[in-house]
Amino acid sequence: MKQRSRSGHTFRRCSVAGCVCLLAACASLGLAFPVQASDQLLIGVGNSSAGADGAETGTEEDGSSLSDTSLGSAGYNGGPTMLGSGSTLTVENTRDEYEWVKTNMAGRFYPYVIVHAEGNPNVIHFLYEYGHDYKSPASFYYTDEEKKTFTDTEKSGAARVPLIMQWDYRWGFNWYGGGPAGLTACAPTCMTMIGLGLTGKESYTVPAMCSYAEDKGYWVNGQGTSWSLVTDAFPNDPITCQQTSVDEGSIASALNAGNPVLINVGVGKFSAVGHFMVLTGVDKDGKFILNDPNNLENSSKTWTWADLASEIQAAWTYALRSS
């Protein structure tokens, strides 16, 4: 079901994937967003059984996403199949919105947040709608198309991990940590993807994971989401987390065994600050399949190890514990 935004663009309100990882730095510079009652985190389908306990601390936040209470989604699921038809937003038809954002939102974001959005039409549109006080719905549900991905009985493990966008309109405007989840929730979004893929449980949602992270104190002002969430996101399910060597062989081996791999990247081609993403497989050419919760374009193509090697700072492999 397609919707028309107040700016006149047609898009499918929903998308499972994406992230910008930039608000942590805003907080460290005293540029946190004003908290209003209507901006508080809203739980959609209720608290998931997700959790987080932690080990080291690190920073990563970003994301936003498109969607309303009854709409479809677009996402890349480790292959040529897209979940839904996706939005029709383009760099060209969001050019005026980007100019508006640069003119009217400069005081609400650290400058590189806006600079980093250039070339990413979904994030541009998210910032534009945020500037016009768009609110995420108080509740939502996963579409049938999305459910087909993470409940596909013919697939298992990493092959079922859906692409979820942090800027999805179903939750992207809700508050998480130092700003809207669409800009701060790359880590909770990635953990949601992994939880959905490994368990098929609809209780794993971005709002629920954000709420869990905040309740456990895993949001660190001035830094972002602590890496503690990475190791403790699934306390009520038999999901194991193992830090993985950042080398092609180790990561490819984990993926070929059907286990999704979470990666943290620093400043570079994927982020201006730091970012979490999920690797879901290796294709026949040996290229890596990536779910970037902030960028649909990044998620629609495969990547060589040379593309990724210098970007990855840390990696973790997730698997269902054998009974």
Explain this structure.
With 323 residues, this protein is of the alpha+beta class. The chain has one domain (2-30, 51-320): Cysteine proteinases (Cathepsin B, Chain A, Alpha-Beta Complex). 28% of the residues lie in helices and 15% in strands. It has 12 helices and 12 strands. The protein has helices at residues 23-28, 95-104, 111-117, 121-131, 144-150, 181-184, 186-199, 206-215, 228-231, 248-256, 296-299, 305-309, and strands at 2-4, 10-12, 175-176, 179-180, 219-220, 224-225, 239-244, 261-265, 275-282, 288-291, 302-303, 312-320. Strands 7-12-8-9-10-11 form a 6-stranded antiparallel sheet, with helices on both faces. A two-stranded antiparallel sheet has the order 1-2. A two-stranded antiparallel sheet has the order 3-4. Mean pLDDT is 76; it is low at 1-86.
Give a quick precis of the structure.
The chain has 323 residues and is of the alpha+beta class. The chain is 28% helix and 15% strand.
Topology, element by element:
Elements: E1 2-4, E2 10-12, H1 23-28, H2 95-104, H3 111-117, H4 121-131, H5 144-150, E3 175-176, E4 179-180, H6 181-184, H7 186-199, H8 206-215, E5 219-220, E6 224-225, H9 228-231, E7 239-244, H10 248-256, E8 261-265, E9 275-282, E10 288-291, H11 296-299, E11 302-303, H12 305-309, E12 312-320
Antiparallel strand pairs: 1-2, 3-4, 5-6, 7-12, 8-9, 8-12, 9-10, 10-11
Helix pairs in contact: 2-4, 7-8
CATH architectural name: Alpha-Beta Complex
What is the rounded distance between the termini?
41 Å
Beta-strand percent range: 5-15%
Instruction: Choose one word for the global shape.
Output: globular
Query: Looking at this structure, what is the CATH superfamily?
Result: Cysteine proteinases
CATH fold title: Cathepsin B, Chain A
